[in-house]
């Protein structure tokens, strides 16, 4: 079986414009917001680094080499794209050691903005969200209708699709996951990437089905809901007026399963089960690899959304998304990428 990525449906109709993103790194600016304040004391040096045209793991390797520590002594909260200007935090474990001269790391692509100590290693996911500033070049379309879509996004949020970058070049990582499940040997880094691609594909398929029947932000029987701004969740077998009201005010969101070893507390609803039944090789492969079931919100709120048409062909957007969410999930609602 070979799986091609479909064109997952949009929430607010088809985009009324085309445009290019990532024409240059500074067109895609990301600023990471930690979910806590470093204490100022401890064995871990926390570095706030601005990087241009480099991925997170490359910076982590550079830090380990520069500080003379093991790769596993480096921490970071999230992976950031290479083709961007991103500001993110790293931690370096330096027990009983003074900080090296971090300014020696400065280059055209790396800039150390701030250093502070903390007691614990920076863990994956320790973010409150990410702030984006995105420039869309060569924009052509209907400005009035695009602004209507942006107003709808500001008011009602977006579908929480995984971005295409999750699936590798031309989406091939899903099929590489299938090959891995069938016995093809891969490296540890690729193993993790392929597992993520397989699970993300299944989630997007479930979300697409909910978008298609207009239930992506609605209460259904046997649904697990996630509280906005957290990973806390609860199940409701039969939605009542309170659930409907909280959904309308966007303080909770419906979720879909992230496939893996089943947790007995949450049974699957009919939409989830239908998608899972359609891709048994992916599901069984994830289970065989020991991936645990989880949940992900189908909808996310977009905070502090602002936009400006700088010219007839240049659109600049600024907004904040929760950790783990993709700016391209917003952009795909308003432009077709060139």
UniProtKB/TrEMBL annotation:
Active site: 81
InterPro entries given in the database record: PsdUridine_synth_cat_dom_sf, PsdUridine_synth_TruD, PsdUridine_synth_TruD_CS, PsdUridine_synth_TruD_insert, TruD_catalytic, TruD_insert_sf, TruD_pseudoU_synthase
Reaction(s) this enzyme catalyzes, per UniProt: uridine(13) in tRNA = pseudouridine(13) in tRNA
PROSITE patterns in alphabetical order: TRUD (PS50984), UPF0024 (PS01268)
UniProt KW tRNA processing keyword: yes
BP-aspect Gene Ontology terms: tRNA pseudouridine synthesis
Enzyme class, broadest EC rank: isomerase
Cited CDD domains: PseudoU_synth_EcTruD
Keywords per UniProt: Isomerase, tRNA processing
Pfam family for this entry, one: TruD
GO terms of molecular function: RNA binding; tRNA pseudouridine(13) synthase activity
Domain TRUD: 157-300
GO cellular component annotations of the record: cytosol
Top-level lineage group: Bacteria
Stated family: Belongs to the pseudouridine synthase TruD family.
Role noted for this protein: Responsible for synthesis of pseudouridine from uracil-13 in transfer RNAs.
Name this polypeptide is given: tRNA pseudouridine synthase D
Species in which this protein is naturally found: Crenothrix polyspora
């Amino acid at each position: 079986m070979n799986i091609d990525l479909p064109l997952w449906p949009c929430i607010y109709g088809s985009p009324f414009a085309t445009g290019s993103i990532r024409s240059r790194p500074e067109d895609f600016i990301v600023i990471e917001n930690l979910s806590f304040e470093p204490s100022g004391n401890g064995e871990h040096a926390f570095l706030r680094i601005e990087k241009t045209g480099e991925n997170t793991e490359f910076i982590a390797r550079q830090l380990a080499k520069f500080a003379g520590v093991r790769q596993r002594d480096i921490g970071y909260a999230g992976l950031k794209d290479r083709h961007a200007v991103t500001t993110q935090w790293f931690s370096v474990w330096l027990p009983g050691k003074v900080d090296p001269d971090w300014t020696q790391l400065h280059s055209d692509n790396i800039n150390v903005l701030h250093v502070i100590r903390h007691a614990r290693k920076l863990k994956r996911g320790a973010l409150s969200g990410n702030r984006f500033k995105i420039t869309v070049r060569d924009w052509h379309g209907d400005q009035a209708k695009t602004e209507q879509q942006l107003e709808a996004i500001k008011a009602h949020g977006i579908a929480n699709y995984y971005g295409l970058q999750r699936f590798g070049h031309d989406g091939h990582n899903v099929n590489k996951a299938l090959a891995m499940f069938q016995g093809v040997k891969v490296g540890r880094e690729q193993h993790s990437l392929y597992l993520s691609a397989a699970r993300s594909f299944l989630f997007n398929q479930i979300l697409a089905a909910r978008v298609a029947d207009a239930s992506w932000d609605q209460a259904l029987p046997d649904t697990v809901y996630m509280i906005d701004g957290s990973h806390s969740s609860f199940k409701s077998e039969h939605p009542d007026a309170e659930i409907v009201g909280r959904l309308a005010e966007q303080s909770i969101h419906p979720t879909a399963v992230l496939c893996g070893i089943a947790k007995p507390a949450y049974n699957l609803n009919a939409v989830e089960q239908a998608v899972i039944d359609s891709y048994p090789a992916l599901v069984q492969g994830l289970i065989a690899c020991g991936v645990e079931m989880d949940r992900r919100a189908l909808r996310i709120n977009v905070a502090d959304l602002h936009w400006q048409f700088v010219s007839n062909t240049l659109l600049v957007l600024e907004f904040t998304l929760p950790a783990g969410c993709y700016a391209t999930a917003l952009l795909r609602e308003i432009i077709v990428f060139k």
